[in-house]
UniProtKB/TrEMBL annotation:
The chain crosses the membrane at residues 31-49, 61-78, 90-110, 119-138, 150-167, 174-193, 213-231, 243-261, 281-301, 313-335. InterPro entries: Low_temperature_requirement_A. The keyword Membrane applies. This is Low temperature requirement protein LtrA. It comes from Kribbella aluminosa. Keywords: Membrane, Transmembrane, Transmembrane helix. The lineage of its organism: Bacteria, Bacillati, Actinomycetota, Actinomycetes, Propionibacteriales. The keyword ATP-binding does not apply.
Length: 389
């Protein structure tokens, strides 16, 4: 650091980053940050798996959707903030680590959310993450220039919504189920309104790299589920064939999801504010589906080894629904505008056929075939970058 870029307290002015900065990549702190979030995702997936296997489908899916919103929203807010204002001084690192501590608190409260609808620990962990984010925005506002009003609105908006979340701690737990959509909508509205007060700069390649890396981590959970099928097969010899087949099919589908996600040029999907919001918000479904896919594989293992009363069709749907949501989400926000008519027919059609797979005599097997067919189409018809519509 030079005297012009640092203060006596060893802090760097948090000025807006250049959105065209060359060589901008994810920092080691951002990667460290992601790893902590994966702990929360893993715990949420495990609880979803148990809820589905115990046939608590409605409650399990609802709890997972609520928990994943907290995980995704806190991750996404930090990611977009970092692309605009990241520094690497001690205070920025410290506040980021405080956010990470909030993730761990949230993860500790996930089991209670699923089992008892007790959101106390989860809400406290979430608020810790968001309060640290308020501090980041306030610090950025001091040197934000034309983005100053936006940073101030971010800080104020996030603070107001956290007060709303805290009120749920003194109200009956059932109240949170009613007000959750309202409070979540308030969270989603903060960036929409703030960015109209003064655009914060974002680096397209840096942002899409961050999303890509988080997707890879989530898909890694599915590979772990594939390995669990093999491990289970070693101990349950009478189910050896079906479990090994499940492991292979899981690997094939996970590889196909990776291929589909990384086929289009994602940076062209965030060229305007509206397109950036669409890209960021639709990723809630993409990320949640990736996390739920691994839970579905665990449910399939339970079904094969007779550790659940869930029907075979229902167990298959716990796998195919997340796959279809993932594919349709990426098609909508990244593939559609960079593909020809053939790709834009095959990809969504393939997702619909995956949804129909559990109704046929060989569930999940054809899913791998449909996914392979989508990949083959993408190989034969490379993306064509077009001007944003």
């Amino acid at each position: 650091m030079t005297p012009e870029t640092t203060t006596r307290s060893r802090l760097v002015p948090m000025r807006p980053r250049d959105p065209h900065e060359t060589g901008r990549v994810a920092s080691s702190l951002e990667l460290f940050f992601d790893l902590v979030f994966v702990i929360a995702v893993s715990v949420a997936g495990a609880q979803l798996h148990h809820a589905l296997s115990e046939q608590h489908i409605g409650g399990g899916v609802l709890s997972y959707a609520m928990v994943f919103f907290a995980i995704w929203w806190a991750w996404m807010n930090f990611t977009w903030f970092a692309t605009s204002f990241a520094t690497d001084d001690w205070l920025y690192r410290l506040l980021t680590i405080v956010q990470m501590s909030g993730v761990l608190v949230l993860a500790a409260g996930i089991e209670k959310i699923f089992s008892d609808h007790d959101f106390t620990v989860g809400v406290l962990g979430y608020v810790v993450m968001r309060v640290a984010m308020i501090a980041q925005w306030l610090r950025a506002s001091r040197s934000a220039g034309s983005s100053r009003r936006a940073t101030q609105f971010y800080a104020a908006g996030i603070a107001i919504v956290q007060v709303l979340w805290l009120t749920t701690l003194v109200l009956p737990q059932t109240v949170l189920l009613v007000v959750f959509p309202v409070f979540a909508a308030a969270e989603l509205a903060v960036p929409v309104v703030a960015e109209r007060r003064g655009i914060t700069p974002w680096h397209p390649h840096h942002i899409t790299e961050r999303y890509s890396l988080f997707t890879l981590i989530l898909l890694g959970e599915s590979l772990l589920a594939s390995a669990n099928a093999i491990i289970e097969a070693v101990h349950v010899h009478e189910s050896l064939g079906p479990l090994v087949a499940l492991s292979v099919l899981t690997l094939v589908v996970t590889a196909a999801l990776w291929w589909i996600y990384f086929w289009p040029p994602h940076h062209t999907a965030i060229t305007t504010l509206w397109r950036s919001l669409r890209y960021g918000y639709v990723h809630y479904f993409v990320f949640a589906a990736a996390g739920a896919f691994s839970a579905g594989i665990e449910v399939e293992i339970d079904s094969i080894t007779h550790h659940t009363e869930l029907s075979e069709v229902a167990a298959s749907y716990t796998v195919t629904i997340p796959i279809a949501i993932f594919v349709l989400g990426i098609w909508w926000i990244a593939i559609r505008e960079n593909a020809d008519r053939v790709v834009n027919l095959v990809v969504p059609l393939g997702a619909v056929l995956v949804l129909l797979d559990p109704l046929i005599p060989v569930p999940f097997a054809l899913t791998a075939v449909f996914m392979a067919a989508i990949v083959a189409t993408l190989v034969l018809r490379p993306p064509v970058e077009r001007a944003p519509s």
